[in-house]
Amino acid sequence: MRPSDYSAIPTPARCYVDFCILPLGTGNTSVAQEVAEVQKLLKASGVAHTMHSAGTTVEGSWDEVMKVIGQAHAVVHQTGCARVQSSMRAGTRTDKPQTAEEKVKRVEEILAKEEES
Amino acid sequence: MRPSDYSAIPTPARCYVDFCILPLGTGNTSVAQEVAEVQKLLKASGVAHTMHSAGTTVEGSWDEVMKVIGQAHAVVHQTGCARVQSSMRAGTRTDKPQTAEEKVKRVEEILAKEEES
Amino acid sequence: MRPSDYSAIPTPARCYVDFCILPLGTGNTSVAQEVAEVQKLLKASGVAHTMHSAGTTVEGSWDEVMKVIGQAHAVVHQTGCARVQSSMRAGTRTDKPQTAEEKVKRVEEILAKEEES
Amino acid sequence: MRPSDYSAIPTPARCYVDFCILPLGTGNTSVAQEVAEVQKLLKASGVAHTMHSAGTTVEGSWDEVMKVIGQAHAVVHQTGCARVQSSMRAGTRTDKPQTAEEKVKRVEEILAKEEES
């Protein structure tokens, strides 16, 4: 490919990203307030999301998911925190659509079937 | 500290680790079978654990949690997979014990209180 | 904030993201060919980036960095891989700009100063 | 497998783990001092390691690598920090040994060969 061809490559139409966001330098070991602010942003954004104890999973197009996670950094900065770090796991697939819920169900089915036999 | 002093540093007595394990080179895009094998290992190990759509959170001492995640790599290799990769988030704190469940509850309380007011 | 206010929050003007991208279901344990394709994309994109043995660090605005990582997923899909997973660490700060190179230098200075004394 | 069989599964004899460690609640956005403490620990431990701008890659047996990363959490707690979080990428393979250095070299060879042709 020529360099000019690269800029035209589209980002994935669908992805899921699990992220955990951390404020640094706050003088407070609790991050619950910052996480709550991010949950309000996610709710307002309209993207599908599920919180668990080690992060939040967001589903949608690559661009909308990454926009809202970037905004999450901004929201945590707005609480007065000068440094924000996040850890993410992003998955994309072209073979079939699969929701976060279906992924868990699939594993549970395998386990249930083995217990039966 | 002298080098000899470092080897005596104890690993944390308590931690939580959220991990996502991936088999590489399997010729199969589904990872559900491998994840199910890991869930059986976790159940047999007796460590506290919760599966979600983007990983599993394990709680216990650093040594027991890391032993079982290392065994999880071994279990996936045993399914015939020559390369295994995992992504982890590990947290330790010395100020207070806090379970995975309490972390989620704390955020939900903040959100509920704000909605009331 | 009202929901309408959230959509106007800008993503960070500057960030660094370290990412590791993995093709799943390829039937091949080596990922070097896919990583090489991603390096060509990064070079063509013009964003600052440094490869190391466990990933690549990219620096720029949130939007341009996330666009190119999304394109990296697309490029790996184009090699014939139906499922792509990546792990990322993203950092943003509002107190001062700091390049990846400066971060390493800062740690090395502390270590050098302590060895002297 | 019976539960008793699981406890006998050995952890991997060889792995590489790339980790990034973060102190929370310090009231200071810089983490260079804590990272320098961890580098001293790694040096004293004798495990193979390489620092880059977004983390440090450690190589060795699963048990020795995870012991030293657990000790790294302890060392950061000793600096007075009550909460420590790390993000890790762990890789194991049974097909062939491969060092961190060889992984980078392999990608560079592919890129060099393509530029020639």
Structural overview:
Chains A, B, C, D: It comes from Trichocladium antarcticum. Chains A, B, C, D: One of its GO terms (cellular component) is cytosol. Chains A, B, C, D: InterPro entries: MTH1187/YkoF-like, Thiamine_BP, UPF0045_domain. Chains A, B, C, D: This is Thiamine-binding protein domain-containing protein. Chains A, B, C, D: Belongs to the UPF0045 family. The structure is a homotetramer of 117-residue chains. Chain A is an alpha+beta fold and 117 residues long. Chain A has a single domain, classed as Alpha-Beta Plaits (2-Layer Sandwich), CATH 3.30.70. Chain A is 44% helix and 27% strand. The first copy, chain A, contains 4 helices and 4 strands; from the N terminus they run H-E-H-E-E-H-E-H. Chain A has a 4-stranded antiparallel β-sheet, with helices on one face. In chain A, a hairpin with a 2-residue loop joins strand 2 and strand 3. In chain A, helix 2 crosses helix 3. The longest helix of chain A is centred in the middle third of the chain and has 17 residues. Chain A is flat and about 55 Å long. The mean pLDDT of chain A is 93. At the A-C interface, helix 2, helix 3 and strand 4 of A face helix 1, helix 2, helix 3 and strand 4 of C. Strand 4 of chain B pairs antiparallel with strand 4 of chain D.
Share in β-strands of chain A? 25-35%
Poorly predicted residue ranges of chain A: none
- State the helicity of chain A in percent bands: 40-55%
Q: Structural class from helices and strands of chain A?
A: alpha+beta
Stated plainly, the CATH topology of chain A is called: Alpha-Beta Plaits
Mean pLDDT of chain A: 93
CATH architecture of chain A: 2-Layer Sandwich
- What is the string of SSEs of chain A from the N terminus onward? HEHEEHEH
The coarse overall form of chain A would be flat
Instruction: State the total count of DSSP E strands of chain A.
Output: 4
Biggest β-sheet: strands ordered side by side in the sheet of chain A: 2-3-1-4
Largest sheet of chain A: 4 strands, antiparallel
